[in-house]
């Protein structure tokens, strides 16, 4: 049975004041410009139709969510000031913040919430499963929204963060194609920053919203989001002061130790508990080679996760065979892979599958795509090329920008296998199910079931866990799911990285919520080093 949730403005004020560390307890100062650096340019400025990390990085600065969350994923008010969940888990009542305005001056109301939930269900890569049980959103008055569910959704109270479930203006999106609405790239929201301009290939400029509902915030005058694809250039930017803040380990991992010696820079691991990640090698199960389980098993036997952890992640992470990250302790199955590192076994399996070695030692050639968003994924791809060469598989790496990668994998499906990373988010139903649920094989939807994996028992377990109110039964369902997919190998899960936030020490209160830098940054201020 879900507990009754109610939070008051006073409670959140007190709670927020306790989130910062002792070093961050100084009085905030107003003014200044913050330079946030990203590895890549976002495909859109609202995380409405995409869950690409660069879009998540900027979305919440303009569009907000109903709730925010502390490090332990306890909900806190944002656009909703209080809420109740019915004892049977089928009605979520949100009482909305009065006096909130959209950036164009229109009133924010429950109609915007109802419209946004329905829109997210249609166009968001994860929301079809997140809100699958939501049948309608009632709006008894302008400041009350009631989500009505056909079945309980035990994860749902954690789903309302700004970057995960953005609330968008109905009057801007209604009657348009949400995939091509120009406001995806010139957003109008309720948040602390106003979109000013997007200089393609260079930066996004946001300015302080003087009419923000939290009257003392934001403290910053401006937020500049810079795109610096080259890892060495990002390191230089932190050294010279051109970059003030970056997250998800924004520099090459082999450069972290050197940068830690610089007195002006600080390093933090907080603000990642809303979004643990797992990197994996994903197969296209329609590929002529990888549709054979024995070939996938051979690849699994040729991969040494401990080597990947050291050469690609410099020890900053944990090896995992499970798609559920070790950080989600209640559901993660820590069992080792059923396919241990065994080159002899890998070669035997490839022989059995009908791929003998040729005169040059090659069994077959294949192209490996990798997500370009992180250096560790590229290094993992390079390791994979080397590892598979030892069993006679010749691998060619294909580099491309993020938009091309997403289109190739999820729309064109023009790939054999890929090195990718997926956020688990706060619950496996939301972050993991989308990768393995057969009903989420949807061309054109990024970070969905790219493998075209179908297993009726996996579908049953995932769908049962979606509505299971008994915590122990839900644990058992997810454990059974993990064991099946670890055997079937639609992918090979590799590493759950430990993300580091790097900041100039003049920047305060940058990571005070579970979503950290992906939050709205209204609380960030700039002082003296």
Automatic annotation (TrEMBL):
GO BP, one annotated term: peptide transport
Signal peptide segment: 1-25
GO cellular component terms listed in the entry, alphabetical order: ATP-binding cassette (ABC) transporter complex; outer membrane-bounded periplasmic space
Family affiliation: Belongs to the bacterial solute-binding protein 5 family.
Organism domain of life: Bacteria
Keywords annotated in UniProt: Plasmid, Signal
Ranges of residues in domain Solute-binding protein family: 75-439
This protein's name: ABC transporter substrate-binding protein
GO terms for MF: peptide transmembrane transporter activity
């Amino acid at each position: 049975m879900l507990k009754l949730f109610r939070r008051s403005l006073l409670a959140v004020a007190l709670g927020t004041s306790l989130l910062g560390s002792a070093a961050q307890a100084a009085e905030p100062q107003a003014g200044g410009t913050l330079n946030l650096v990203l590895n890549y340019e976002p495909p859109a400025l609202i995380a409405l139709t995409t869950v690409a990390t660069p879009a998540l990085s900027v979305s919440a600065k303009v569009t907000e969510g109903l709730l925010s969350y502390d490090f332990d994923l306890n909900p806190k008010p944002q656009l909703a000031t209080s809420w109740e969940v019915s004892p049977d888990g089928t009605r979520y009542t949100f009482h909305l913040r009065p006096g909130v305005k959209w950036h164009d001056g229109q009133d924010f109301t429950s109609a915007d919430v109802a419209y946004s939930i329905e829109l997210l269900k249609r166009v968001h890569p994860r929301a079809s499963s997140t809100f699958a049980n939501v049948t309608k959103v009632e709006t008894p008055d302008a400041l009350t929204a009631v989500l009505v569910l056909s079945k309980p959704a035990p994860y749902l109270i954690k789903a309302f963060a700004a970057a995960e479930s953005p609330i968008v203006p109905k009057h801007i999106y209604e009657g348009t194609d949400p995939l091509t609405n120009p406001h995806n790239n010139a957003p109008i929201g309720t948040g602390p920053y106003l979109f000013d301009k997007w200089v393609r290939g260079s930066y996004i400029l946001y300015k302080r919203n003087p009419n923000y509902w939290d009257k003392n915030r934001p403290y910053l005058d401006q937020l500049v989001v810079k795109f610096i694809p080259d890892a060495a250039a990002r390191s230089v930017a932190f050294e010279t002061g051109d970059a003030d803040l970056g997250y998800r380990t924004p520099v090459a991992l082999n450069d972290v130790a050197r940068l830690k010696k610089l007195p002006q820079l600080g390093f933090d691991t907080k603000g990642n508990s809303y979004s643990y990640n797992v990197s994996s090698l994903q197969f296209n199960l329609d590929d002529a080679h990888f549709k054979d389980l024995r070939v996938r098993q051979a690849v699994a036997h040729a991969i040494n996760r401990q080597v990947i952890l050291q050469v690609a992640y410099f020890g900053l992470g944990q090896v995992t065979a499970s798609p559920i990250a070790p950080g989600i302790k209640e559901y993660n199955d820590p069992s080792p892979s059923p396919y241990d590192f065994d080159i002899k076994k890998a070669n035997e399996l490839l022989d059995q599958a009908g791929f003998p070695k040729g005169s040059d030692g090659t069994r077959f050639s294949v192209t490996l795509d990798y997500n370009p968003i992180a250096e560790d994924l590229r290094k993992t791809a390079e390791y994979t090329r080397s590892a598979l060469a030892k069993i006679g598989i010749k691998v060619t790496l294909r580099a491309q920008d993020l938009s091309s990668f997403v289109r190739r994998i999820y729309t064109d499906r023009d790939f054999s296998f890929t090195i990718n990373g997926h956020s688990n988010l706060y619950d496996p139903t939301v972050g993991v199910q989308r990768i393995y649920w057969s009903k989420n094989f949807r061309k054109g939807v990024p970070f969905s079931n790219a493998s075209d994996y179908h297993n009726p028992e996996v579908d049953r377990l995932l769908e049962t866990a979606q509505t299971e109110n008994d915590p122990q039964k839900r644990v058992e369902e997810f454990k059974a799911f993990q064991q099946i997919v670890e055997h079937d190998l639609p992918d090979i899960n590799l590493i759950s990285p430990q993300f580091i936030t790097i900041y100039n020490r003049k920047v305060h209160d940058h990571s005070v919520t579970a979503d950290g830098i992906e939050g709205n940054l209204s609380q960030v201020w700039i002082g003296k080093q």
